[in-house]
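In keeping with the milestone schedule agreed at the kick-off meeting, the structural modelling team has produced records for the first pair of proteins. Each record is given below as a sequence line and a structure-token line. The laboratory manager (R.T.) confirmed that both were archived under the project's standard naming scheme.
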Amino acid sequence: MATLDDKLLGEKLHYYCSSSEDEGDSDNEDAPRQSSAAPKALVQTPGPSDWDGGSSNTGPKGVLKDWQRFKQLETEKREEAEIEKMALAQKLALTCRSTNDDDKAANKDADVDAELEELLDDGFLEAYMQKRMQEMMMERNQHVKRFGRVLDLYTGESFLDNVDQEDKRVTVIIMIYEPNVDGCNAMSGSIECLATEYVNVKFCKILSTAAGLSKHFKASGVPALLIYKAGQLMGSFVRMTDQLGDDFFANDVESFLIEHGMLPNKEDVPSIIRGPAIGNDDDSDVSLE
């Protein structure tokens, strides 16, 4: 409590501290000051390895470090530019040629074109290509059957044997005829001529009596053409005089069979493979033209 002296002297109690109170109070007052100073100690400045192009150190050391980094980047950029220039120079050196080189190349191309035109004009190249293609076709046809003539069949069994036992790749054309019927002689001469033209096609002929056909067929069905392949009947054309008339030639029969898909069309084969056309015999009464 305050004494009378204190009141007279004007002393205030909150300005007075005892020694024991001072020690206690000083401890209490220092505690918040230390706690406020602790966060300041946790602040860290960036190290040299964390530099991102700027410098927080504005002293002589920071300026010197910034200058060294700048010179290093400048040197690296200069080296990269030199490498790009050398690569571009090498590329241009490989593709670039002078006007003189261009003129020489043009003259060489012109000489080659002139030589090629001479070969084509002389027919040498065309003859060589034709010969080579014919050789290739001959090699291909080595294992293909060739006939080149008309086979006469005398019995029904031979008829069946020539159809059923033939190679599946071979087309078999059989003419049924009677000697004294109109159109049979013309058909016989036509297939004789076509047999020499289509050597890979098997042409046969048989009398209707030998085949065991009826009298009605003998009188009104001949001349007839039956086309087989792989043992199967591909086409049956009876009384051919109704389509071709009583007097016709080999080219008429050929066109008829090609139109119905029974013979291959020679026009589909390039002329360089076919070669020159086969000449006709002036003494023959059957024409291929």
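The second protein of the pair:
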Amino acid sequence: MGSTNSILEQQIPCCSQKYPIAYNDRQFAEYELHKEKLGLTNKQLALLISSWKSISSDMQAQGVTLFVEIFKSNNEVIHAFPLLNPNLKGNDAKSAMNEAFREHGIKVMSRVNEVLHNLDQLNLCVSLIKQTGAYHRRFQGFKPQYFKNFYEPFIGMAKSSLGKKYTPQTEAVYKAIANFLIQTLIDGYNGEPEQEKHNQTVNSQ
């Protein structure tokens, strides 16, 4: 079906059903790989995007809560963030810590929000998440397995925010996206480009 140099534009339906996205052969292979890893149907993606709107409406509070819970789940993590471990005493230490929690919590939620609002462009999402993973290399003592501490607080945040809307179907969707985010963050931190898988997919054509 054409030479490897020809650009076959594959039409991928957006989750929002607004515009189809045109991909060339290589980009389409990447998209299929990412979608397979995510493991959600278009219907599940639509559920994720619509339910996320309720959570993201109060990003600042949710971000701080999420970040605090991450540190509660693993005390080790805090030592990898110098800003969150200042050599201050008393009220100054508390004030600096609270501000650092707030700032980093908002950053985390903003990036998650950006990703979940662009799930119709999975290639872009993966690139954004990997950049975030790679960014954490600058924190001395940070280990990629720390990203796994994101899972329970993220699920807990979704559950408390959605209340009665948090059905078994919604839970399955949030567990899938949490695992996807964590694994992609780890890949970004480790600098694993997935080149071999992409090459295998394209070369099999």
